[in-house]
């Protein structure tokens, strides 16, 4: 849906009308992003309320977050845009991570605490990748890029923490992850709504 695709094939008004219809259809579901953003904010609020959660609780909460991220990426992959395989790949990674978290939350927590920095790095890299993929169609792509950079910075900082400290850090950063994901989803939803009204 980039300008280059429109300019490279000069097929006239029919091509422009077709692209406009696809864009109108895709942005018509702006409310799904809003619902997802609110869900992420609720998850963030719930997580940040815990001051001393059990290991099993943290493992299940992180599993739910991976599940929600996987569903969100499946929804992104269903849009008629280029590079749809990227959200599909990340949704598979998120679903596998969720299943692992649900199978044995206590062991998952120990594993997550050990490789917490790596997991945050995966999320940060995905957000930065998504920002550049959306750049042609999303005027607020920079918000996703900044969030990805922040998540990557948190990944490197977390990797240097001790295991006992990681228990609390995992909980707090999971809440921050959910908060950033919610804010980005809500901003993108209202931007899609604005584009839908213009079309």
Describe this structure in words.
With 199 residues, this protein is an all-alpha fold. It has one domain (31-198). Helix content is 84%, strand content 0%. The chain has nine helices and no strands. It has helices spanning 3-8, 13-27, 30-49, 55-77, 85-103, 105-114, 116-134, 141-159, 163-198. It is elongated, with a radius of gyration of 18 Å. The two termini are 14 Å apart.
Hey, roughly how much beta strand do the residues contain?
Answer: under 5%
The number of distinct structural domains comes to 1
Number of DSSP strand runs: 0
Helix-residue proportion: over 70%
Distance between the termini: 14 Å
Tell me, rounded to a whole number, the average pLDDT.
76
Rg value:
18 Å
Q: How would you briefly describe this protein structure?
A:
This protein is mainly α and 199 residues long.
Task: Summarize the SSE layout with pairings.
Layout: H1 3-8, H2 13-27, H3 30-49, H4 55-77, H5 85-103, H6 105-114, H7 116-134, H8 141-159, H9 163-198
């Amino acid at each position: 849906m980039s300008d280059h695709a429109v300019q490279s094939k000069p097929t006239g008004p029919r091509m422009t009308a077709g692209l406009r219809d696809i864009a109108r259809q895709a942005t018509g579901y702006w409310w799904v992003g809003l619902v997802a953003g609110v869900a992420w904010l609720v998850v963030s609020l719930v997580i940040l309320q815990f001051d001393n959660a059990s290991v099993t609780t943290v493992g299940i909460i992180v599993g739910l977050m991976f599940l929600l991220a996987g569903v969100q990426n499946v929804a992104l992959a269903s849009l008629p845009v280029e590079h749809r395989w990227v959200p599909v790949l990340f949704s598979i990674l998120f679903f596998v991570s969720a299943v692992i978290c649900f199978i044995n939350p206590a062991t998952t927590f120990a594993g997550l605490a050990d490789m917490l920095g790596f997991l945050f790095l995966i999320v940060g890299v995905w957000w930065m990748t998504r920002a550049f993929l959306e750049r042609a169609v999303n005027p607020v792509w920079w918000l996703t890029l900044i969030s990805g950079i922040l998540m990557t910075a948190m990944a490197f900082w977390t990797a240097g923490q001790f295991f006992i400290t990681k228990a609390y850090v995992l909980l707090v950063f999971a809440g921050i992850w959910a908060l950033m994901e919610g804010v980005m989803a809500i901003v993108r939803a209202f931007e899609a709504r604005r584009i839908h009204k213009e079309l």
